[in-house]
């Protein structure tokens, strides 16, 4: 299959998740993504271990987010290495980095410097909080950015302490937003020959992610409040949320209360009108929660399906993986390592011309591609 970004060369001066996440998607789309790493330490993400899981000398997380890439190991303080790197920069189409502001400029690799070597470069810099202001040099770690952005007050219920999202959502959002604009800038470069400076931050990505909440707050001057019971979205009325049953949990999406009660047949719920669904959200949710405990998941799901209601079971990862709906998506792929080792991860979630985007190429070892890259530049 001819992938859309075949022939594009992207240099990844990025570490941990946000920049490497962008590089992963570019590689999925066919770009040649070359990680620029320290000759001895490599990229810092190689040592970011989740649940003490390692694959060879690097963490499983590193292999997951850096599959299908190459590695060019150079010392940015060594002039001989920098000469090779400048040659590579001159032939690249994209650069990404997520160093703190000023680091690349001190190495002679800021946008203005690179633009002199390569006028059509798409230069993408990702920071924690932007390039200016009192936060610019603060650590741009996902949990810390979530905490500053207000996101910790969107999950959980009213009486809960601030609760972070259970994933590095800022890194993933920012990385994927970078890909959108990199592709747009590549189109511009193709048409005009001119490059583009792209600047993103985790903070701006998380604020954008909460656009519904901020817009509501700006207009009403009131902070959206989490529901006291079964909160799933502070802006939505009852019954929206996850509820326990006699043997599990079900998720109930937005729907009129009278439609839901056709399945529930709850006498206490009949007294509430649709106008009450937000103003009396907490007490309505509490009534629904008590009533659902009287039946099993299967009992309530059968009633919901008969009425075409938006209700689904809450599955564990093990249960989801066993479900036919998951299997038919073919979301898993095997990454092959040296010595007949392998591990399973997820694939790119997009199909192109009905074909899945899979690659079993692992993350590179430090400097694995130095010889080939230098030979191509000689």
Structure report:
With 378 residues, this protein is of the alpha/beta class. The protein folds into two domains: 9-209 and 331-377, Crotonobetainyl-coa:carnitine coa-transferase, domain 1 (Rossmann fold, 3-Layer(aba) Sandwich), CATH 3.40.50; 241-314, no CATH class. 38% of the residues lie in helices and 16% in strands. The strands form five sheets. A six-stranded parallel β-sheet has the order 5-2-1-6-7-8. Helix 1 (18-28) crosses helix 7 and helix 6 crosses helix 8 (202-209). It is elongated and about 80 Å long.
List the helices and strands and how they pair.
Layout: E1 9-13, H1 18-28, E2 32-37, E3 54-55, E4 58-59, H2 60-65, E5 70-73, H3 79-91, E6 94-97, H4 103-106, H5 111-117, E7 122-127, H6 142-149, H7 169-192, E8 196-201, H8 202-209, H9 211-220, E9 241-244, E10 249-252, H10 257-264, H11 276-279, H12 281-292, H13 297-306, E11 311-313, H14 317-322, H15 324-327, E12 332-336, E13 342-346, E14 351-352, E15 355-356, H16 370-377
Parallel strand pairs: 1-2, 1-6, 2-5, 6-7, 7-8
Antiparallel strand pairs: 3-4, 9-10, 10-11, 12-13, 14-15
Descriptive tags:
single chain, alpha/beta, 378 residues, three-stranded antiparallel β-sheet, Rossmann fold, six-stranded parallel β-sheet, 2 domains
Span from first to last CA? 30 Å
Main sheet properties? 6 strands, parallel
Oligomer: single chain
The amount of beta strand, in percent, is 15-25%
* Tally of contiguous helical segments: 16
The best one-word shape is: elongated
The CATH superfamily name of the largest domain is Crotonobetainyl-coa:carnitine coa-transferase, domain 1
Radius of gyration: 25 Å
Total domain modules: 2
Output mean pLDDT. Answer: 94
- Helix percent reads 25-40%
Determine the structural class based on helices, strands and strand pairing: alpha/beta
Strands of the widest sheet, in order across it, are 5-2-1-6-7-8
Name the CATH architecture of the largest domain: 3-Layer(aba) Sandwich
| SS elements, strand count | 15
